[in-house]
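Journal club side-thread
Mid-discussion, someone asked how the predicted structure for our own chain would compare to the paper's figures. Pasting it here so we can look after the session.
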Amino acid sequence: MADNYLGRKMEEYFSRGDSDKRPRPSNTLARLLHRNRSCRGYDASFKVRDDQLRRIIGVNTSVASARNRQALRFRPVLADEAAKVLPHIRMGGALPELHLPLPGTEPNAFIVICTAAEPDDDLYIDLGISAQSMLLQAVEIGLNGLCIRAFDREALKLSLALPCEPLMVVAIGRSIENIETVDIAAGESHAYYRRDGRHYVPKVRLDDLIIR
């Protein structure tokens, strides 16, 4: 009887194949947006690969562009060149007392977004679309990032020998931070803050965003 029982269980197991595996949570837009938090502390032992940066940059072949001008260009920076970028960027401007990133938590990969055209309103719309889309792609493959506009443009351009003007630096890596969003009313402070090792990001409630 015991032999028959075990035999039946083995037959059931092999007949299931892969159908009984638990499905992984789907990467819905809501889930990606929730996980897409601005990260200022990274796992220094994790090295972002070239194919990962190419996949992230690749979203720009599909996203919208004002007048379809497609004037943005992208310079990937891996760990071997990170030292050419780090001295020229500033992170965590709302928390100057912390001198972010903390030693040993610096990002080691970047995407420098440049322009091949004269900056105008349309170009900055494209910049926002591009940056958000790339960060969502980064989150989908298990990474995080940070949009950096506080940087020394001339120094960075010289350091990387850029042929066009840099508009934004996007840091990419594996986050080590605990980040949580906090609902606030429209009139409350929007400044992010840290408490007990956790980073808090105030976000205005939906009802306060809607014009009645």
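Post-session note: The chain has six helices and seven strands.
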